[in-house]
Amino acid sequence: MNAVIYGPGGRFSLTERGAGALRRDERSLSIGRSQMSFDGTNVTVDIDEIAAPIPQRVRGRVRLTPSGFTPGPFALDAAGRQRWWPIAPASRAEVAFDSPGLSWRGAAYFDTNAGDRPLEDDFSTWWWCRAPLPSGDAGVIYEVERRDGTGQLLSLAISPGGEVEHREAPPPTALPPGRIWRVARPTRCDAGATPRVLRTFEDTPFYTRSEIETRLFGERTRAVHESLSMTRFTRPWVRMLLPFRMPRVPWS
C-alpha cells in the first residue's frame, strides 16, 4: 500500500507484495500489515509500512470523509480497458501518524484508476491536475495521449456532493520540465494567466508530482499536478531503477 509523506521527515513507501498478502471483501482491503475500510461514512486507512530506499517506519492513520460520490468511472481508451474514477474529489481528511510524528486536518482528494492491461500498452503520456476552487468545487483536468496517436481530454468541475459538470477546457500551456530528469509538465490554464511551479514533490525518470499556482475556470488556485511519460517508463534503464523505490516481498 503506497504511502508518501512530503516535507520535513518525509517518507516514501511502495512495497510490492505477493498474492498471499492480500485480503479483501465488500468493505475492506488489506495488503500486508496495512488496511483500509469503509463504514458507510468514512474511509479509514491504517498504514504500517517500511520506507525505501532508506528503511524507516511509516505508521499512522488517515480518515477520509467524502461529502458525496460521483456517478462512476470514465474510460480513458477507446476500448474501455483503462478507467479513471474521481470518486470524491472534494473531501476532508484527518491524518495522524506515529512515525513520523505528525497530524493535520484538511482538504482531500479520493480517486481510483483501474486497467485490464499495463498502462504502457495504451498510453504514451498523461498528465492530470486537481485544484480546490474557492467556489467549493474541485477543478480536475485529465489529458492522455494514446499509443495510437489519439487522445482524450476531460475538463471537469465537481461539486462536494459529487455532481460532475463538463467545462470548456482552458488553453494548453507548459510548466518547466522536471529539474533533474526533465520530464515534460504540460498543463492548461485560463487565457491571460501564467501557471508556475511552487514545489516539486517527485522528480523521477518518468514521473513528476508538483504543487502549482494556476487559474482554472476563472478562479485563482493552487493545484496538485502530475505528469507521466510511459515512453520513458518502458526504457530498460528506468525499469532497473524501480526496485530501489519499489521493493518486492513476494512471500508475504
Give a description of the structure:
With 252 residues, this protein is mainly β. 6% of the residues lie in helices and 56% in strands. The protein has two helices and 21 strands. The strands form five sheets. Strands 4, 5, 6, 7, 8, 9, 10 and 11 form an eight-stranded antiparallel sheet that branches. It has a seven-stranded antiparallel sheet with strand order 15-14-13-12-20-19-18. 27% of the residues are buried.
What Rg is obtained from the alpha carbons, in whole angstroms? 18 Å
Specify the overall morphology: globular
Following the backbone from N to C, one meets helices and strands in this order, namely EEEEEEEEEEEEEEEEEEEEHHE
Rounded mean pLDDT is 95
Count of strand segments: 21
Ranges where pLDDT stays below 50 over 5 or more residues in a row are: none
The computed structural class is mainly beta
The biggest beta sheet reads:
8 strands, antiparallel
Portion of residues in beta strands equals over 45%
Secondary structure: helix percent? under 10%
Termini Cα gap: 13 Å
Number of helices: 2
Name the descriptors:
252 residues, mainly beta, seven-stranded antiparallel β-sheet, 2 helices, 6% helix
Compile the SSE list and pairings:
Elements: E1 3-5, E2 11-13, E3 16-17, E4 22-24, E5 28-31, E6 34-38, E7 43-50, E8 57-66, E9 74-75, E10 82-99, E11 102-115, E12 123-132, E13 138-146, E14 151-158, E15 164-166, E16 172-175, E17 185-188, E18 196-203, E19 207-216, E20 219-229, H1 230-233, H2 236-245, E21 248-249
Parallel strand pairs: 3-21
Antiparallel strand pairs: 1-2, 4-5, 5-6, 6-7, 7-8, 8-10, 9-10, 10-11, 12-13, 12-20, 13-14, 14-15, 16-17, 18-19, 19-20
